[in-house]
């Protein structure tokens, strides 16, 4: 996949990617989830890229405040070669920031550990959103929640309970110096 977020999310969800920070526990639940209908639609990278499409639609069950997130990647002129990744996105406010909890969509053939990946969402100029990912290497080791480094430089798996994770995001989630560059998406269809 050529799109940075599509690649990171897809690979991260399958536990076989770059230095992605994942967690055993979610940060959002039915009680804490928030829903923003303005995010529903079709989005593309703002860099004049037509490679990846991000489709957000409401999820009916089991979490009413969740979204279905489908990432469609590849050459639009060759539909048979496009890949689709099905994910679930649940939003939660932590402090004054909006966080997305991303996990692989339900599949009856699951045989792997479902891990959660987190992005901070920022709505900008009405028709764009920025997705921001924590840069784990910038977080002082002593301040990181309990985690395991995955072999082969494949990232980190946070093993601390959800409360510790949320406390960590409250402390570091609003500090821009702990994030990678933004991935800006623009709305292409409501």
Task: Describe the protein.
The chain contains two helices and eleven strands, in the order αββββββββββαβ. The chain is mainly beta. The chain is globular and about 45 Å long. Mean pLDDT is 76; it is low at 1-8 and 10-18.
**How many DSSP helices?**
2
The helix content, as a percent range, equals 10-25%
Content-based structural category: mainly beta
Major beta sheet, specifics? 8 strands, antiparallel, barrel
What is the string of SSEs from the N terminus onward? HEEEEEEEEEEHE
Overall outline: globular
Major beta sheet, strand line-up: 2-3-4-5-6-7-8-11
Strand content: 35-45%
Structural features:
190 residues, mainly beta, eight-stranded antiparallel beta barrel, 11% helix, disordered N terminus
How is the topology of this model organized?
Elements: H1 4-13, E1 20-23, E2 41-45, E3 52-58, E4 66-73, E5 83-94, E6 97-104, E7 116-124, E8 128-132, E9 147-149, E10 155-158, H2 162-172, E11 183-189
Brief write-up:
The protein is mostly beta strands and about 190 residues long. The chain has 2 helices and 11 strands.
């Amino acid at each position: 996949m050529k799109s940075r977020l599509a690649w990171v999310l897809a690979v991260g969800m399958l536990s076989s990617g770059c230095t992605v920070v994942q967690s055993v526990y979610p940060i959002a639940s039915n009680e804490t989830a928030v829903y923003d209908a303005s995010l529903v639609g079709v989005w593309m990278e703002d860099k004049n890229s037509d490679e990846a499409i991000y489709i957000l639609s409401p999820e009916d069950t089991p979490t009413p405040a969740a979204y279905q997130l489908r990432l469609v990647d590849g050459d639009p002129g060759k539909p048979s070669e496009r890949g689709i990744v099905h994910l679930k996105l649940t939003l939660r406010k932590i402090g004054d920031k909006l966080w997305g909890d991303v996990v692989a969509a339900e599949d009856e053939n699951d045989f792997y550990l479902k891990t959660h990946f987190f992005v901070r969402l920022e709505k900008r100029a009405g028709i764009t959103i920025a997705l921001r990912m924590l840069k784990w290497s910038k977080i002082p080791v002593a301040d990181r929640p309990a985690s395991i480094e995955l072999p082969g430089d494949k990232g980190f798996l946070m093993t601390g309970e959800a409360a510790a994770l949320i406390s960590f995001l409250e402390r570091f989630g609003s500090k821009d110096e702990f994030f990678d560059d933004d991935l800006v998406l623009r709305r292409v269809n409501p």
